[in-house]
Structures are given as structure tokens and as C-alpha cells.
């Protein structure tokens, strides 16, 4: 009896040990934690969202949905306030081997310059994503159709345009909804009429944040109309000269003439409150990308309109377009331990369901071809619907084509051409000098 | 060997032993400081010097390029403007030292309300430089309060775009630095003045020396070493620590019109352009180091001469 009891006890102990061992081996999955850097502006975090608690942001809610669909996965959101610095920080972290698993960076040259620390996604992107998402050229190394895929185009599509105040335009005797200026001559004449009623036609901070916004968001379209993106790439790689680019010089000359005619605010190289001035009715136009539309509509209501850049050369190959496209990307760090899960997350954020969910909080033209404006709930003829028309016909960001040397000159000195401290040729030659030194 | 000789040999052996122990003590006492200096000062400087001769991108690329970074930077066309800006901003040093002496003397002589003045004058030092930069940017903005006042008093023609021109922008920056620093200068000089016997000032007053005579005939000659410290410290600070002021007020612009050597280190390392030209950034840092050393040596020699005169 005693033996039987001892044997039974041993058997129970043995079985319990086996059960515990098996449960700990098979039942528990490895915990996966992904760190995600997200830009605090112009990204899937909308400008007005940041006034709310972080758990109410779209991206926070999307992360919770992803975690729910993928048990064992936790996502950590890190918001990068300074987008430019985020690139350097990512590079430094990549060098140290502790870059975030996923990072939201700018497309084009900014990520090409970081390819040593970015994982190639050639074998990881699902075929459906390649089929239904537009803008892959912006994340393929060297903008080549067969270039290595360095990231995903981010879910929102930024379309460059000018926001305008309908009340001011009406006061100047015009109706741009029915008859928008479509040539440079018409544009000039329209701005002159606005100036004549005592309102500054265009308010813009052309240097305060280190970027010539009007040139990048509006005038770049005129430049690429005449030179083409391929031509600009040739120049930035030093194979052709900016100084011999008639399109670039003509655009700069017109840009200068706009300042001379008083179409810009006088202090455009030092101003830093133009958007506020625009919202307060102190300026008729403000160069913009889509992420500013919601705030402008909220402030101006029915008086908020959108105007696409007029054609500099109506006979150019590129017409009825504008600068834009996915200016933001999602990249995966080389040092990530979970490349498949990282790509799964990015694919999830770009999925049709998430694009539709995001639109309930932020409104952006999108990068998917399988979603219609009706599905998005956009009223035909609304500002957002007008911009969405350019979602697949945009011309990719010109400043993102520029390599570091010419870009440095372009960003820091273009506004000096407007105020007459530099001639167009001097700027072009300075960019050539930088391109040659690369 | 005599007893005296043996004793003398023993004494000399003991002396040598003591000298060795003393040397060992000195060596061991200095060792921690020397190690800290080697690790945290010498090593970074030597590394930066080596990197300044490469095309370092902050990552793996670090090929030897000789003097190319230096030559390219000097030939860029903006170098002389940047050097000029750096030197113009140094004008704040004599200004803040002069005003610091004036204020320190007023506080020393305990003019009515001196306690309040002492607290108020030091207040800018406890405000973040970035906040000061933004305040001055708003105050001197084209549509800011300063221009509004000028227009209100009928001086509308003087209401210009202060940050739109290199010289006026640098003038505003110098003004902001002086405003920020006079409290520190006054406290340093006041500290130095405490070493001057009060009887000296009392005798000067009895002899009929006025305020300016007391400042220039007593304070300055007797505080040469204190002034030397404050001038060197302010000069080095101006050359290396102005970044938050420039970043908040002008971002080095328009163009490079208010950029300085230390701001260029930032622009080359982190500015828009995405290339991260760390090689050139370290070359600029080396040029700045040489400038700091040169100015410090000149200033110390002048101070030594002034001390000799004293």
C-alpha cells in the first residue's frame, strides 16, 4: 500500500512536470516589441490631432487594432518633433545598432542617403501592395523602376496647391471657382487685382524654417514642367548644369518678379507667422500641402478654396499636374529583429481598411488606387475631392530629387533670389559647384 | 670612509627616496585629472582632427581626402561672410564687460534699490537662451512691437526688417547677447571687487574721484585678472555657445547672412541636405578651435602687459 502510494505520488509529480514543461514550450509565444518613430507633422498624425490626448490619435488606435490582431506584439510610438533631425537620429541609431524597427522618414534622396542602415524590402513587400499602392518610385533607390525598395510610401498623399480666401478674391472682382487663373499671365493679373484692394496677395514664410515653401510647393512645378524630373536628376548628379537650365533660370526670374511686384509679403525671408496671417484674412493665398487643408477649412469655413499652380508653359509635356506624392515613407531598420512583423505593420497601416479608418480623423488624398472618393465620403467638388484628382497624376517632389550638396544651397539660398540678394544665375552656379564637389 | 661622509650619503639616499615618493605622489595626484583630460578632451580633439581630413558621413565612409574639406569650405564663397559674422558677434564682449563694470560699481556702492537691481539684472541668466531668442525675434519682427513703437512716435522710416539684413540682424543678436550677459558680468566683477579694500574706494571718494574715475582708475587696473577671465570666458562662449540664439532668431539666415562658424558645424552635420557632411563639419570645428586659441593667446598677452603696467 505504501509502495503504491509512493508510486502514485511520483507518477503525479512526473505528469505535472511534463505538463508544465509542455505548456511553457508550446503555449507561450515570444513577445515581439516594435518601436515606431512617427513624424509629428505632415504624417499620419494630423496637425489638429496633437491637441488631443495621444490615445485618441488615429495612429494610436491603429496600433491597438494591430496589436489585437497580432497577439504577443506590442508597439511603441515615438513621435519625432523635428523631421529633419529624425533622419540624422535614425542614422546615428542605426550605426549604434539600436535604430527603431520602423521609422517614418522622407521619401527620395533623404532615405537614399540612409540606405546603409535601411533594410531592403524587395523580398518582403506583398504583391498586392505593389499593385494597389502608388508612389513606389519615391522609395526605390535612385528613383529607378527596378531600384531596391527602401521603404513604403506613407499612406497619405501630399498634393501641393495654394489655399486661398474666397472672400478676398471675390472682393477683388474674381471668382476662381468658376474661372481660376491657369496661365502665368492670368495669375499675374489676378495677383495684381488683389494687391490693388490693399491685401497682400501671397503670405509665406520663405526661409524661417529653412525651406523656401513657395518655391518648393508651387514654383518647383514650373521648373519641372520645363526641365523634367529626369533633367533635374542629371543636374544634381553633376552630369548637366543648373546654370544652363533655362527652365530653372526662368522660374527663378519669375519668382523674383513676383517679389518686385509686391505679390509676396515684404518680409518673406524672416516671417514666421504666415499661416496665421492667412487664417486671419491678412493674405489672399498661402502655398500649402494637403495636411493644412483641415485647419484652413475650420478657420475660413466656406471661404476656403484651393488653387492649383497655373501653367508656366502651356506647351510643356507636363501640364494639368502639380508637385506632390507621398513625401513620407516608412522604412525598416537593418538592425530589426522582426523584419516580417515590421513590414506587416506598415502594410497594415497602408491597407484599404486602415486608409478608410484614417479618413474619419484626417483627410488626405491617398496612395491607394482601389479606394474611390465615394468610399471616402468626400463630397464631389469639395476641396479634398479636387486635390484627390491629382493623386495619381502628380509630379514627384522636386526638392526630394536634389542630392545633399545642391539641396543645401537650394534650401538656404533660394529665398535670397526673391529679395534680390542673389541672381538666379548665382544660385544656379552655387548649386553646380556643390554638385561637382560631391 | 668617515662618519660624516657616511651620514651625508645616508642623508642623500633618504633625500632621493623622499624625492621619488614626492614625485610618485605628484604623479598619482595628477593621474586622474590627466586621464580624464586624455579621454574627454584630447581623444575627441585628436579624433576630430583626424576626421577633418576624411569624407566621414557619420557612418562607415571615412576615406582620407587630405585638405579637401578645408579648401572646399574656404572656397565656398560663404567662408569669409561666416568668419566676418563670427568676428562681428565678438563685439558683444567689450560691450558686456563695459556695462558689467558700470553695473557692478553701482551695486558695489549700494545705490538706492541696489538689492532689486542685483536680482533683476541677473534674471536673463536664468531664462533659456531659446526663449530669449524667440522673444527678440518677436520684438524685432517686421510687424513686431519695436517697429510698432517706431511708427507710433513718427519714426516709421526706421521701422525696417531687422532680421532681413546681415548687419542689422547681427546688431540685434549682439544686443540680445549683451542683455543676456550683463548680469553674469556684473556678478563676476562684483566678486572681484570684493578683494579690493574698501579703504581704497573711500580714499578715492575723499580725494574727489568721480564715478568714472573710480571705474577706470581703480576698478579696471585692480581687476585685470578678473577681467581677463571674464573676457576669455565671454569670448569663448560667443564663439562656441551662440547656437540657441541663432537657431531661435535667424536660423543662420537669410541665406548664411547670420551664420557663424559654430552654427556651420550644425548645418554641415544636421542641416537640410541629408548628406551629413561630418568631414567638413569637423574641419570647421578645427578652424573654430584655432580661432579660439589664437584669440585667447592674444588676450592673455594683452592682459599680462596690462598687469605689468598696473
Radius of gyration of chain B in whole Å, from Cα?
26 Å
Strand order of the largest sheet of chain A: 2-1-3-11-4
- Overall geometry of chain A comes to globular
Cα-atom radius of gyration of chain A? 26 Å
| Portion in helices of chain B | over 70%
Strand tally of chain B is 0
Helix content of chain A: 40-55%
Main sheet of chain B? Answer: none
| Helix count, DSSP H or I runs of 4 or more residues of chain B | 14
Summarize the helix and strand pattern of chain B as letters.
Answer: HHHHHHHHHHHHHH
Number-wise, the strands of chain A total: 12
Q: What about the largest sheet of chain A? A: 5 strands, mixed
- Give the overall average pLDDT of chain B: 88
* CATH homologous superfamily descriptor of the largest domain in chain A: Periplasmic binding protein-like II
* Number of structural domains of chain B: 2
Total separate domains of chain A: 2
Q: Largest interface, counted with CB-CB under 8 A?
A: A-B, 41 and 30 residues
Distance between the amino and carboxyl termini of chain A:
90 Å
**Percent strand of chain B:** under 5%
- Give the class of chain B from helix and strand content and strand pairing: mainly alpha
Number of helices of chain A: 18
Amino acid at each position: 500500500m505504501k509502495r503504491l502510494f509512493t508510486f502514485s505520488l511520483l507518477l503525479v509529480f512526473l505528469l505535472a512536470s511534463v505538463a508544465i514543461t509542455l505548456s511553457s514550450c508550446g503555449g507561450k509565444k515570444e513577445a515581439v516589441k516594435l518601436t515606431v518613430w512617427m513624424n509629428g507633422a505632415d504624417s499620419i498624425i494630423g496637425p489638429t490631432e496633437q491637441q488631443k490626448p495621444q490615445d485618441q490619435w488615429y495612429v494610436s488606435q491603429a496600433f491597438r487594432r494591430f496589436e489585437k490582431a497580432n497577439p504577443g506584439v506590442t508597439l511603441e510610438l515615438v513621435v519625432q518633433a523635428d523631421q529633419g533631425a529624425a533622419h540624422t537620429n535614425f542614422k546615428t541609431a542605426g550605426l549604434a545598432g539600436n535604430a527603431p524597427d520602423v521609422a517614418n522618414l522622407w521619401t527620395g534622396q533623404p532615405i537614399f542617403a540612409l540606405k546603409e542602415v535601411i533594410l531592403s524590402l524587395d523580398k518582403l513587400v506583398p504583391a498586392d501592395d505593389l499593385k494597389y499602392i502608388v508612389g513606389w518610385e519615391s522609395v526605390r533607390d535612385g528613383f529607378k523602376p527596378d531600384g531596391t525598395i527602401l521603404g513604403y510610401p506613407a499612406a497619405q498623399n501630399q498634393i501641393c496647391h495654394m489655399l486661398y480666401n474666397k472672400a478676398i478674391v471675390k472682393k477683388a472682382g474674381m471668382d476662381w471657382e468658376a474661372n481660376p487663373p491657369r496661365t502665368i499671365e492670368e495669375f499675374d493679373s489676378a495677383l495684381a487685382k488683389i494687391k490693388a484692394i490693399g491685401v497682400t496677395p501671397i503670405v509665406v514664410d520663405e526661409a524661417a524654417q529653412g525651406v523656401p515653401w513657395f518655391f518648393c510647393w508651387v514654383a518647383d512645378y514650373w521648373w519641372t514642367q520645363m526641365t523634367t524630373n529626369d533633367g533635374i536628376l542629371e543636374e544634381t548628379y553633376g552630369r548637366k548644369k543648373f546654370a544652363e537650365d533655362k527652365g530653372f533660370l526662368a522660374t527663378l526670374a519669375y519668382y523674383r518678379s513676383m517679389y518686385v511686384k509686391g505679390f509676396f509679403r515684404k518680409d518673406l525671408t524672416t516671417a514666421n507667422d504666415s499661416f496665421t496671417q492667412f487664417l486671419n484674412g491678412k493674405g489672399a493665398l498661402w502655398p500649402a500641402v494637403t495636411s493644412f487643408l483641415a485647419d484652413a477649412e475650420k478657420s475660413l469655413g466656406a471661404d476656403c478654396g484651393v488653387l492649383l499652380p497655373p501653367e508656366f508653359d502651356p506647351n510643356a509635356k507636363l501640364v494639368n499636374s502639380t508637385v506632390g506624392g507621398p513625401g513620407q515613407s516608412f522604412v525598416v531598420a537593418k538592425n530589426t529583429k522582426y523584419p516580417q512583423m515590421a513590414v506587416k505593420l506598415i502594410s497594415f497601416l497602408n491597407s484599404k481598411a486602415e486608409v478608410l479608418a484614417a479618413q474619419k480623423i484626417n483627410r488626405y488624398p491617398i496612395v491607394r488606387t482601389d479606394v474611390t472618393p465615394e468610399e471616402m465620403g468626400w463630397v464631389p467638388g469639395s476641396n479634398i475631392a479636387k486635390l484627390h484628382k491629382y493623386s495619381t497624376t502628380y509630379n514627384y517632389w522636386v526638392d526630394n530629387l536634389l542630392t545633399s550638396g545642391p539641396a543645401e544651397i537650394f534650401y538656404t539660398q533660394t529665398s535670397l533670389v526673391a529679395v534680390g540678394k542673389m541672381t538666379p544665375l548665382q544660385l544656379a552656379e552655387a548649386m553646380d559647384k556643390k554638385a561637382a564637389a560631391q | 670612509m668617515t662618519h660624516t661622509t657616511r651620514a651625508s650619503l645616508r642623508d642623500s639616499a633618504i633625500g632621493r627616496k623622499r624625492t621619488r615618493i614626492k614625485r610618485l605622489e605628484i604623479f598619482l595626484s595628477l593621474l586622474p585629472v590627466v586621464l580624464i583630460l586624455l579621454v574627454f578632451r584630447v581623444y575627441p580633439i585628436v579624433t576630430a582632427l583626424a576626421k577633418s581630413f576624411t569624407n566621414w558621413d557619420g557612418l562607415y565612409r571615412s576615406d582620407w581626402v587630405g585638405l579637401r574639406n578645408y579648401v572646399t569650405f574656404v572656397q565656398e564663397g560663404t567662408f569669409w561672410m561666416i568668419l566676418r559674422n563670427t568676428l562681428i558677434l565678438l563685439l558683444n564682449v567689450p560691450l558686456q564687460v563695459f556695462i558689467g563694470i558700470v553695473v557692478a560699481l553701482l551695486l558695489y556702492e549700494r545705490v538706492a534699490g541696489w538689492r532689486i537691481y542685483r536680482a533683476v539684472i541677473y534674471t536673463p541668466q536664468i531664462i533659456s537662451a531659446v526663449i530669449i531668442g524667440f522673444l527678440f525675434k518677436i520684438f524685432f519682427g517686421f510687424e513686431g512691437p519695436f517697429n510698432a513703437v517706431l511708427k507710433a512716435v513718427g519714426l516709421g522710416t526706421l521701422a525696417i526688417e531687422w532680421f532681413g539684413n546681415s548687419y542689422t540682424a547681427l546688431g540685434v543678436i549682439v544686443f540680445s547677447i549683451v542683455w543676456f550677459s550683463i548680469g553674469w558680468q556684473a556678478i563676476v566683477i562684483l566678486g572681484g571687487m570684493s578683494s579690493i579694500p574698501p579703504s581704497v574706494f573711500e580714499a578715492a571718494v575723499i580725494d574727489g574721484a568721480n564715478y568714472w574715475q573710480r571705474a577706470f582708475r581703480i576698478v579696471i587696473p585692480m581687476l585685470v585678472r578678473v577681467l581677463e577671465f571674464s573676457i576669455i570666458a565671454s569670448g569663448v562662449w560667443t564663439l562656441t555657445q551662440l547656437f540657441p540664439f541663432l537657431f531661435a532668431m535667424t536660423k543662420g539666415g537669410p541665406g548664411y547672412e547670420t551664420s557663424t562658424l559654430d552654427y556651420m558645424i550644425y548645418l554641415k552635420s544636421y542641416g537640410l541636405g541629408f548628406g551629413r557632411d561630418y568631414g567638413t563639419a569637423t574641419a570647421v570645428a578645427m578652424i573654430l578651435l584655432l580661432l579660439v586659441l589664437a584669440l585667447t593667446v592674444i588676450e592673455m598677452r594683452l592682459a599680462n602687459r596690462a598687469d605689468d603696467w598696473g
